Amino acid sequence: MRMNNMTQNQTQAAPASKKISTYLALIVMIVMALAVVALLIAAYTYVNAATAEDQITAAAFGVIGAVALAMSVFTLFQSRRQVEQMKIDAPKVITTIECQNKGCNQKTVREFQRGDYVYKEIDVPCTKCGGKQMITGIFKEIKEKEKTYNV
Amino acid sequence: MNFISGPNTVAQAVSLPAGASISHSQLLGAGSDQITQIISLLSYVFFIVLIFYGQRIQMYVMIREVENSLHKLKHIKEEGRKTTIEAIKEIGKPTVDPTPRVDRFLEYFTIGPQGMDPAGIVYKLDHILDVRDERLKEEVKLMAPLSDEVQINNLENTLEAAMALNFIYKVVRHYYIQGKKTLSLYVIMQLQMILPMVMKEADAYSSALKAFAYGQPIGDGVGPLVVGKLMHGYEVRKLPKDCVMATVPIEGRVGIIVKAEGPGGNVGKPGDAVEAVIEENQGKIACLIMIDAGLKLEGELVGEVSEGIGAAIGGPGVDAYKIEEKLTKYKIPNYAIIVKEDIGDAVSPMRKEIHDATDKVIERIKSIIVERTKEGDKVVIVGVGNSIGVGQ
Ligand SMILES: [Zn+2]
Prior knowledge:
The complex is a heterodimer of chains A (about 150) and B (about 400). Chain A has two domains: about 1-85; about 95-140. Chain A is about 50% helix and about 15% strand. Chain A is built from three helices and four strands, in the order αααββββ. In chain A, helix 2 runs antiparallel to helix 3 (about 50-85). The radius of gyration of chain A is 30 Å and the shape is rod-shaped. Chain B is built from eleven helices and seven strands. Chain B has two domains: about 55-215, no CATH class; about 220-385, 3-Layer(aba) Sandwich (Rossmann fold), CATH 3.40.50. The radius of gyration of chain B is 32 Å and the shape is elongated. Zinc ion binds next to loops of chain A.
């Protein structure tokens, strides 16, 4: 299962590891081909089965073929997923601006701009009452909830 | 098992004209018998190989894992370096390419004080850290001549994050190559065991670097954020070593609010600042309340507020030492309020949960003041942490 880590190297443009990953890809391909052959044999044996023994043989081939196929597909899938993980995701940081006039609850939210800082008084007056505005918060919101593990 | 099935089936096929399918299945049955034998032989071989080479295989798997992490670290490090250089070019508008200077800077090191005779080591460490800080700032000024004080602080922090990433990469690479050279399971195993934590830290520094480059508040800035809210609108004056203070009425008491000067990336030296404030008031302080970001344990919620006793301040310990000394001298009680977050949250752009904890912390501060002090008392409230992106 850990083998899938090898294919990840493909994306990193490291020449030494590229060789290994193509090698691994080759192995995965061979395993896949063998799995397909095993499945074909299984199907053929099953169709032409006359005795119970034949059916067991067919089942054995079927299981081997299916497991091998599943594992090779999983390996390919896993390596792709890890490539996606490589990208460093930058969450959107937002700035909230609030009107300083008591009683006026005007609140604007916009994307963070360079030069913003919390408690900075903004030159642009409030659109509702014309009062002074101040940045009250700069933060990022993480949507996905953390796993709790039920303990 | 009938290995020589050929003549038999042929004979059957000849003698039984209607039994063609039987002969067919027998033929295949013999074939699959052989395959079963081969498979069982292969599984024996597999087990024998595992018995003798199992550990070696495990080692190669580990090396592979470390290698992948190392590639990722390299990627993160390069990204960090690029971001830093871009930020310097954008903010500082240098006339010459800052790249060689940045590369030299990334290799910068600091030698800690000798600890054989530990008496007075705190002040030695303090001095070394001062020199380092000054030197780094001067270096940044040379790299980015057109930047103001705030931007210099931000760039310095950016560079420090890039330095940390560079260092992590080099250490992991060192053990990786050592492990490969010696092919020792134990060298590689040690590295592989701590790797998840190392990667987490590297990720944290990487997001910190971006936050610093843009001047966004980070999770560690929750202390300055809270006290900034208390002191905003009041007259602010400077305290020693990059801190500011304001005198604010709070619940009928006199609140002396201290924080690192923002909005530049800066933790200041709260130790010196608190020392100065206490001496100015001849030790007549009812209590000291420190607000900081605290490392959460797995399972605790981000942004949870909890209360305790002691000097809530991280770093190399110099500030904690100075504060504790002054508090002991004047017997001033010391309360701490922390906002829980993990290392990744502490150095990456502030999360909403942490920002939302501000009002809860202010409630706690007020309840401590009301319960523990008398009206008219002087209370020192310190917001500990990096005040990047947080003004006052
Ligand atoms: Zn308004």
